[in-house]
Design goal:
With 141 residues, the chain is an alpha+beta fold. It is globular.
């Protein structure tokens, strides 16, 4: 019985360390993504989006990769905070959910800060690419 408890403790510690490493990797990928978005330069954002990329927003607006790059990159001020970040991974797919604290404008409208957001990445040899995103921030004006 004592051996079982010890093995479980080692497994739990190992599992937490792996989750922490994954969370750190995801936080880095999110930071890279939001730095590119903050630049407003479609050429910096393009390589971070998978060919099949789609995004949907709380007002029902939805874009594929080319539409998003052409007309809907958010205007971001300052550094975002990824609160309550939860990360899961299966093979090359990483799913992140968080409350995104950021000052941003979406299609000219100020967006609520601290709203839930979901971003799905594919890990490739070239880096992490966003496959899909859902932004639940209400548009305020």
């Amino acid at each position: 019985m004592l051996l079982s408890v010890a093995l479980f403790s080692v497994w739990l510690h190992s599992s937490n360390a792996q989750e922490s490493a994954l969370t750190a990797e995801a936080r880095k990928a999110l930071t890279v993504l939001f730095e590119a978005l903050r630049s407003g330069d479609p050429n910096k954002v393009r390589p971070l989006l998978a060919p099949e990329f789609q995004v949907v927003r709380s007002d029902g607006a939805a874009y594929d990769k080319e539409q998003y790059l052409r007309q809907s990159i958010p205007k971001i001020e300052g550094q975002p905070a990824f609160d309550e970040l939860v990360v899961t991974r299966n093979a090359d797919i990483v799913v992140t959910r968080m409350k995104l604290k950021v000052q941003e404008r979406l299609n000219g409208k100020r967006a609520e800060s601290g709203a839930p957001q979901l971003i799905v990445f594919r890990v490739t040899p070239q880096g992490w690419q966003v496959v899909a995103a859902a932004n639940f921030a209400k548009l305020l004006d």
